Structure prediction request, 148 residues.
Amino acid sequence: MKAFLKNYRQSPRKVRLVASLIRGKNVSEALVQLDFLAKRASDPVKKLLLSAVANAKQIGAEKENLFVKEIMVDKGIVMKRMMPAAMGTGHKINKRTSHITLVLAEKVSKEKNTKNTKVEKSVKSEKTEKKTIAKVKTVKAKKEKVTK
Prediction:
């Protein structure tokens, strides 16, 4: 469940601020946070997140169980431009781009795990009870033989 945004025209340093905010969060929490964030990169990252959710739904995952497992912002191409400066000189301007990679994962629901562990614990406890009862019976039998 991945989504990519390539050659986004903003520097990676600025986009990483937005990316670090949603890393590890639920999809619904991340969307709310991106809605109210006052950064230019929040809209494209939100769009990318929705795209990743749509990709996950194609596979058959539920939106409620998804979380942002990984979001990476890498350096894209750098367009080099010149700005006229004093006395006929020019200053170099770098117009940076970013590549954003978003990976979603599904949380294993806790209810299923707790039910399974409760069943396993009860089965284990029954087995241990049977073993202890058997040990007690053997100890009693040995004591009776010794007393006779």
Observations:
- The two ends are 74 Å apart (CA to CA).
- The CA atoms of residues 130 and 136 lie 10 Å apart.
